[in-house]
Amino acid sequence: MSSLDAALSEVLGTSVSGLRRLTAGASRETWSFDSDGRALVLRRDPPGVPRPVEMRREAECFRACAAAGVPIPALVAVGDGSDAVGTPYLVMERLDGETLPGRLLRDERWAAVRAGLPRQFGRVLARIHTLAVPSLELVEDPLARLRAEHEAFGEPRPALEVALRWLAEHPPSPVAPAVVHGDFRNGNLLIDDSGLAAVLDWELAHRGDPREDLGWVCARAWRFGAAGDVGGFGPREELFAGYAEVAGVEPDPDDVRWWEVYACVHWAVICRIQAERHLGGSERSMEMAVLGRRAVEAEYDALLVLGLVTRELPEVSADPPSGTERPTVDELLDAITGALVGEFEPADDRSRYLARVARTGLNVVRRELSLGPELRRRHDECLSMAGCRDDAELAAGVRDSSLDPDDEAVAAAVRSSTLSRLAVANPRYVPAAGEH
């Protein structure tokens, strides 16, 4: 029996079997296990990175949801890390269903429920926004907080400056604060044959503008290549209609669009925050390191929502490998990435998932080496046309309004900054024909 098995047995007072770590959760660990025949899930903070206040608030959200009829797993146990588990945690019932977006969006198994999900999401969100959880933090100025989080890294990202400037110039109409789930999206929602079976992962819950959840679930990041506006499943009109069935009023599309742009910037900042956990040494994680390179996807999405970016990446030929040493860098990377997913054959789901993450990271390295020099040369030309020496000067000019994003040379430099990095990080992220 492992130490975690023994700890769970101690706090639950039952025998524990079948403990295994799931792929879900970059910021918290998720474990599946059985306890005297009962199917359960453990969500805990990584050892060494405890967040007891947030975990307690998440437990309060579970209790409020259960009382209000919001679909959620039954809460079995809560701990602050002072017991045998050693770090803050929740134990909840394990429900049958699917959370993996790739399966939900593409497998015939889920075809019958897909079309109805946006309306169900709307109904459930309207119920969430009526919850009373007084302990949740009130976020009064989310845009100021977001900008501060972005600026804390001191890294120039011109596209985010364009989006932040647009957000400041086009504020949504004011509304009364409500409970906001904060991460309501495809991947955090358990789906079964009846549709939405449970809303998971409440660690970002707070009080604020309820339309934040509507913009978040509409963000392109959660569509995973599918065409539907709402998590890839269907149109936002269905989401709004479902919301109105419960709330009595349909959301203003322009206000939700503001929150969709906000969601793009927010996701970019979250990617960078997660990467910093690795870079700063608080939690060494290949998964978080690779996630940091995904920030540029969210930059692209922000420009796409604002109509400021094309749907094409710059065409550039890969530089031939330098020198004559064999195997070349490309050949070595081919061998390693092939082995990760084809030869090692990891036995468990999480190991297979991490092998795919490793392959993704190595492919970024490959493109950085082969495409990077030419992409940087072309971007330098765009910067020069805008009168800027580098991205830092471009970003600062957009931020202090000395540069106008409506000026074509400035806009071209902003696009170049994002598209050249996207060509390295994930060239397949550009929408296919028919995708929004």
From TrEMBL:
This is Phosphotransferase family protein. Pfam families: APH (PF01636), DUF6285 (PF19802). Residues 348-429 form the DUF6285 domain. InterPro entries: ACAD10_11_N, AGP_Transferase, Aminoglycoside_PTrfase, DUF6285, Kinase-like_dom_sf. Residues 19-241 form the Aminoglycoside phosphotransferase domain. PANTHER family: AMINOGLYCOSIDE PHOSPHOTRANSFERASE-RELATED-RELATED, BLR2944 PROTEIN. Gene3D superfamilies: 3.90.1200.10, Phosphorylase Kinase, domain 1. It comes from Actinomycetospora aurantiaca.
